[in-house]
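User: Okay, second chain of the day. Same drill as before: sequence in, structure tokens out.
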Amino acid sequence: MDNIKRRSSEYISEHNDTVHSMFFFKMEELRNEVQGGYLEFANEFMVKAGSAIEPHSHDTDEFYFGLEGSGTMTIDGESAPFGKGELVRIRPNQIHSLDADQGTDIKCFAFAISYMPEDKVGFTAYPVDGSEPHFVSTRYWD
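Assistant: Same drill. Structure tokens below.
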């Protein structure tokens, strides 16, 4: 799965050698792909051990950075281990879920670059029970 970036040992010295940075993407690497988007959110979330995020998709570039724990990330039917210190990029409209199937909670930092119009902010849920996919608004504060 090319969506998951694993930690490498390659650090770059910056700011007169006061900062050592490890880039998951090179500077400006995603500029053309995210052009016209806006920062929809930045949050921390947790999936409890034995639980999973319902498969869903949205018109965003979404990124999860693993802070604690490990599990299985599934994107468009392809699954791979995911955990602490790894970054996953979920491209627009890819169906994805995260399963805390390794006996521990998974805590992540997430942010999304959105391309959704103001009047349709949310995601499409793909219920695991086989019922019809449906739109879910994420305008929690309106």
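The radius of gyration is 16 Å.

User: Thanks, on to the next one.
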